[in-house]
Amino acid sequence: MLMGDLLLFVLGRYTGWALLSFICRLSLNPETCILRSAESFYKRGRLTLLFAKFIPGINSMAPPLAGSMKMKFPQFLQFDLAGACLYILGYAGIGYIFRDVVAKITRGMQSATHVFAEIIVVAIFVYIVYRIVQYRRARVLGVAPRIEVQELAERLASAEQKDIILADVRSHGYYDPGAARIAGSIRLEPNQLAEELKTLPRDKDIYLYCT
After folding, report:
1. Which residues contact 186 (CB under 8 A, 6 or more apart)?
2. pLDDT tens across 69-115, in order?
3. What are the extents of the domains in the chain?
C-alpha cells in the first residue's frame, strides 16, 4: 500500500496537474473530484493523509495531490504510513471482532458457490452498464463551452473588453493570496460560489480559468 502511494506521490510531484486530471477523468464529475480533494487538503492539510484511505475518491487523489503541492517527502512518508496502519488496523479489527459472523457468511458462500458466482457476474455486468450510461449522461450534460487562448486575448484587446469578465477559479493549494493572476481578471472562491455568483453582472460574458 505504501509503495503504491509513494509511486503516485512521485508521479504527482513530477507530472503535476496532468496525473490529477487523468485520475479525475475516470470519475463521473471531474470538477467535483478535484475540488473535493483540494478542499480537504486546504482545510486539514497533512492530516488528510491519515483518513484519506477511508474515503472513496480522496484515497486515490491524496498521494499525487500531496506530491503536486510540493509536500516534503519525509512528512508525506510519516503521515501516509500512519494512515496506512490506521486503515489496516481498522479493518483487521472489525474482522477480528466479527469473526464469527464472517465465518458463518463464508460457510454459507461455500455451500452456494455456483449461485453466488452467477449473482456476482450479473451484478458486475449491471454495474458496468450503469457506469457507462451515467458516464455518457454526465459527459453530455457536463461539457462546458471552451475558447482558445488566442481568441480570448484578441477579445480582451479589442473594444469588447468592457463586456467581458475573466475569473480565476483555481482550487486552494494552487492559488494563494499572493499568486499571480491573468491581468484584468478577478478572483472567485471555488468554495463560496453560491455567494460569489450573486456579485456577478448578468449582462457580460464570463470566462473562467482554473489550474
Report:
1. 165, 166, 167, 168
2. 778 889 899 999 999 999 999 989 988 888 888 777 777 766 666 77
3. 2-95, 98-142, 149-209
